[in-house]
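Sample 1 of the test manifest.
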Amino acid sequence: MSLLFRNVRLLDPASDTDRPGSLLVVDGRIAALDPMGVPEGAAIVDGGGACLAPGLVDMRVQLREPGAEHQETLATASAAAAAGGVTTMVALPNTTPPVDDIAPVEFIARRAREIRGTRIFTYAAVTRGLAGRELTEMGLLAEYGAVGFTDGEKAVADALVMRRALSYAATFGLLVLQHPEEPSLAAGGMMNEGEIATRLGLAGITPAAETIMVERDLRLLEITGGRLHMAHVSTAAAIEAIRQAKRRGLAVTCDTAPPYFALNETAVGEYRTFAKLSPPLRSEDDRRAVVEGLADGTIDAIASDHAPHDQDSKRLPFPAAAAGIVGLETLLPLSLALYHDGRMPLLEVVRRLSTAPARILGLNAGTLAPGAPADLVLFDADRPWKIRVDEFRSKCKNSPFDGRPVQGRALRTYVGGRLLFEWTA
Amino acid sequence: MHPGSPLVSFRHRHLLGIDGLSAEEITYLLDLAERHVEPNRQGDKKRSVLRGRTIINLFFENSTRTRTSFELAGKRLGGDVINMSTSVSSIKKGETLIDTAVTLNAMHPDVLVVRHPESGAVQLLSEKVDCAVINAGDGSHEHPTQALLDALTIRRNKGRIAGLLVAICGDILHSRVARSNIQLLNTMGARVRLVAPKTLLPAQVERLGVEVFHDMRKGLEGVDIVMMLRLQTERMHGSFVPSIREYFHFFGLDRDKLAAAKPNALIMHPGPMNRGVEIDSEVADDIDRSVIRQQVEMGVAVRMACLEALTRDLPSNGPLP
């Protein structure tokens, strides 16, 4: 089985490649860039000048299976991912039951094999029951396939537990991912603290809740060694703290999600629950700092932070509504805005979406190197279109981006050389 | 077998730790202990070295084997041994450590053997009494007679200590056995490795002159001695280590991990063992490799030597025969 992409713009951040060319896939793996000859009977895809890049690696999604299949399943998420050019997803452990034991890790791996869609990996919990007290069997969980450890949408709040988690994970060279928000400071908060929250009469979450947790954990990391990843950073001060830590040589990485560079707190408007996120949408200054952090490389990766919530969870008074938005199908076009706005070269945007998260997690993805799995996205970086939530494959439509005009979309998505998605206008 | 030590006496008043002992002093104690090994195996074990001497075993922490070992050692040397434990002592009634020391001191014992759950408590007590004090384990600090009995066991099996490669595995963080052994083995010229998850290693432990490993197979590669440590139950369930099965999987000594060590490597454990936690019964009971029971036997001989060494130069209460 051979497949030739010709007349494409090859974008491979792993080898700093950005040039016109062709790419040959044989038996599900990348065989060659600009092959000299083409095997007999190879299927040929003419890209018409579109970009061919490693499929996106979305390092932070909530898939709701097991336990909340009315909101999302691995199958529906996989379809949504493919439509967004995502070929690998890494799920948070906040399912029911949570992924704090070997059995759910194996369950997700088995379901992913059965679905034969995008690749699906899972994090396991740092603490049992995501309760923030007792460490999980990180060593065994990693042997069974957990790619990192996080309590998902909950911070590991206790400093001693976090210290031991980092220390224990470092024993095995494992990655700990933190939801950086000091819960005692953020308790009861619904949106970013400031003028807008004050006018709306909503309890605020101070940006310091993020800074304090980031700075605390960086201090802990200095004691323990090992590797730490800060999820969805959203504030100028936290990003600056990470920037300084990286200069000191600490093994810290971080990501952000499109809403934190595409929106600010004004999106909450008149209590729009679709703009309720955790961490909350921040001030315009913070939003600019996120863009700056991406541009200078402080922020390593962009993840969708896909959080499906049904209407019953969102059509509620703002304080009662669930936090989070779906993101798999908007990750690529919203991120490409960084390129269209002249803030980052196209290859860099692709890097933050594929190569960088793959490297952080140690996944065999995010590269066009010969021998690598043919997980590919063919996308038109410039094509204008309008986001329509009713076209989402995801079971949930909770997105603040409905109706937003964007540029750039996935045309075809391949996993292991298999076509999973083809865009039809 | 071992050239006689150049020392003829022990210059310390107390035995509070291995820290501060020279290689000659350690050798002196081991040589002295060696002389008790054979007589201890005979029918008539009684000697009169400590006749007229009073030894008080003062245990502020539960112990069966160490207390019994000291009691036997004192009695075999002909001394009068009194056991005091916290369950019956006035400590329960709120007396301070120093008051207890002063009270006991007034009864003129010759040796106090003290175990205490707080690091440094035995030294504090030693400053308030006139008699010799032996540290039978203080907190996470030192357990010198355990290190000495381990050394005697090693020397009897390997013929030497210098040049051996020793791996100490498990809960180093809370272990007084590990701290005393690191001191002794380094002093005697062995090379020490520690193998443990990072949560069970104290800060900057490598400054103690050891090499640190987090992987048993790597840490045990080519070692002559494998010393396992006990993991306390309360530390097995999510605080320092997530679970027993995970601990055993990665850090429990079994045939598979032991295969990395030298074929004639010895297996040691200070006891009491948690079978299936830090050690597999198959290796703990391996008659060719495990010297765990020998360690217990050497314990009595070593404690006899320590009692003897500390009382030799004490002024006698009256004419000794």
